[in-house]
# Entry
Amino acid sequence: MGVLNSMFRIGFGYDAHRLVEGERLILGGVEIDHPWGLEGHSDADILVHAVMDAILGAMGLGDIGLHFPDTDPAYKGASSLSLLEKVSERMKENGFRVNNIDATIVAEGPKLSPFFGSMGDNIARALESSPDRVNIKATTTEGMGPSGRGEGMEAYAVASLVQGS
Ligand code: MG
# Structure
């Protein structure tokens, strides 16, 4: 059996968007009250984008740019959770389900920990998984780099998928 047929698969995802004044800040499908938000073609939900790339990567199916091109007007302002549901459909079609997801948001502020539960619930629901399989956390970079200077936010995610029921 080749590596690509193995039962467990791991994928990695990364995303970053610029912070701009007056945009909505949506992370993990949760709208957070903040004077600055993330700029993008869709709702710029970097957390969900990183999770989608991790899942697509684990299945060997490319990335979100391939599946949901930002040149397609259909995805303008799209809810990233609805795109995650489409990724979940692809998972089912290919016989995969989520073993677990672990993600880190990199942001200098605002304080995100009060929202981790809701973010995890939203992501688990879109994936028809359970919240205890989705771990969300955040860190600052102590003022270093683009996230530290508040130019943007980043998100990293790994997804472990299992094949079969
Ligand atoms: Mg993105």
In short: Residues 15, 17, 40, 46, 49 surround magnesium ion (CB under 6 Å). The longest strand covers residues 8-21. The domain at 13-163 is CATH 3.30.1330.50 (60s Ribosomal Protein L30; Chain: A;). The CA atoms of residues 42 and 75 lie 6 Å apart.
